[in-house]
Amino acid sequence: MRIPSLLAVAAACAVFCAAGQPAPVTGLTAFSQKNYPLAAQIFKQAASAANPTAELMLGYLYENGQGVAKDQTQASQWYALALTKADDIARDAPSAKDETFLRGVMLKAKDFVLAHRANEQASVSSIYTGGQYRDPFSPLGASAEPSKKFTRADFNIHHLALRGIMDDGHSGYALFTDPGYGVSFVLKRGRLYDERGHEMPGVWGTINIRAKTAELATSDEDVQPFRLGSQ
Fold first, then answer.
1. Which of 55, 124, 134, 158 is most exposed by smallest CB count within 10 Å?
2. Packing angle between helix 72-83 and helix 52-64, nearest 10 degrees?
3. Reported pTM
4. Residues 123-179: tens digit of each pLDDT
5. Are 35 and 12 in contact (CB under 8 A)?
6. DSSP output for 96-140
């Protein structure tokens, strides 16, 4: 696979973005023209801002080795991250054809995450049911439904489990779940966000990708360290 120089990518991106279109739209345009390296660059940039369409398409590119090195683990992680905001996927689609394509990828993504985690001796009882994301790393036999409805008042950093750490070359991401409620959170750029992409007030954190660790802290000086695989 021939990778263009950074200068060439920047010049091409300037052409695609000149009209002021949202990044996912320009990424889809590059993808439709089979300019996969450029599409990957655009989607990575948009994914760093937590755009669900870009996250979904990054999963697709990693799954198929288009514009990036083929990586099934990265594909599964990006797909899982996108599915936490499934209702927002395809809203950036520039045409009905693109919307249909994105919805097809989303359906395929659910099966892909299931199969990938099953191969790692994990299973999912439900990834996406009734509009709510489920923990794709839940142990075999875990309940498909949360025991009770989650509210902000129920949030506690000590109830969370670290389920994944990702590095897209721009910034680190950490995926957390609260097993008791079946809800998930994403830590990026020092801030924690819920499934809808809303920032959790008074919570911040750090990620050490090399050590596979993360730490969350609250405004009342409560601190909780995490290590991937220790929960």
1. 158
2. 160
3. 0.49
4. 333 333 333 344 444 443 444 444 568 888 899 999 999 988 887 565 678 889 988
5. yes
6. HHHHHHHHHHHHHHHHHHHHHHHHTT---S-SEETTEE--TTPPT
